[in-house]
């Protein structure tokens, strides 16, 4: 039996242009996500001059800004960060679901990684846990996913012209 060929991303060939699009709503949590993402990118060799931050009001506005970044800036990857915390109304489902679906569609449309670091949690305590305490830092995890996908796509070869 022939051995299976295996292609995967690494954290060696990750330098490139990264744009972090950040929702300001719940900034007391989101600021820690940004710190984690930037720190992770720089620690893995991404030049800080190749990291841009774009601020939007909240998670609902992320997809529009991400789309414009993909069209105009044409980065190697986008990292979307924000926090949607459940309240007493169905608003949570609309914002979280709409944001996640739109960002997934954008990465497929532009063939560019859009790492999803938008917290969707039940409480402020859960958000704090995921922003650098008990449950790690989801901003760091999103940056790691973005870098791995940049490396993987390079290994797979050219896609659409950007």
UniProtKB/TrEMBL annotation:
The active site is at 91 (proton donor). The gene is ribE. GO terms for biological process: riboflavin biosynthetic process. Belongs to the DMRL synthase family. (2S)-2-hydroxy-3-oxobutyl phosphate binds at residues 88-89, 130. Pfam families: DMRL_synthase. Catalyzes the formation of 6,7-dimethyl-8-ribityllumazine by condensation of 5-amino-6-(D-ribitylamino)uracil with 3,4-dihydroxy-2-butanone 4-phosphate. This is the penultimate step in the biosynthesis of riboflavin. It catalyses: (2S)-2-hydroxy-3-oxobutyl phosphate + 5-amino-6-(D-ribitylamino)uracil = 6,7-dimethyl-8-(1-D-ribityl)lumazine + phosphate + 2 H2O + H(+). It is an enzyme of class 2 (transferase). It comes from Vreelandella zhuhanensis. This is 6,7-dimethyl-8-ribityllumazine synthase. Keywords: Riboflavin biosynthesis, Transferase. Forms an icosahedral capsid composed of 60 subunits, arranged as a dodecamer of pentamers. 5-amino-6-(D-ribitylamino)uracil binds at residues 25, 59-61, 83-85, 116. Gene3D superfamilies: Lumazine/riboflavin synthase (3.40.50.960). One of its GO terms (cellular component) is cytosol. It comes from the Bacteria.
